Amino acid sequence: MNEAGFPKASKEERLSISADRESTRRVVSSSPEETESLGEKLAEKLSSGAVVALFGELGAGKTCFIRGVCRGLKVKEKITSPSFIIINHYRGTLPVYHIDLYRLKSHQEFLCLGYEEYLFGEGVTLIEWAEKAEPYLPPETLSVSMRIVDETRREVRFSREPR
User: What is the span of the domain harbouring residue 153?
Assistant: First the structure.
């Protein structure tokens, strides 16, 4: 991790990171394993109350990244996207709340989930399709935007700035 708490790639992982301290960090992952590794490295810096908002199209690697975060937080359960049940709770070194908002149609539906428990609780909250909850995210939320570059590569941007 660098001094700002963002994942720092090793040579073995063949990841490219660029950006100065005040701007977005950009990482290119060359495989699902590298994407999971980025998540695992991020987990080392997460603490109680952390909120990570994930943005990106279907298939961009959001759930893959979350599997890595959960591995880094020592979650033993199988990590799957909670598309139909919306929220999965996992136990690790900290409680993990994996929220998938893909099926929500409005901000109002998000409000009905009792979001305060997750966004302001004691665990780590990981939100897929976070644009559906953006107005309610805490200011210290870490945004992770993922973009498909090609069949195997993904561009991952880390930012604490509002999108």
Answer: 11-159
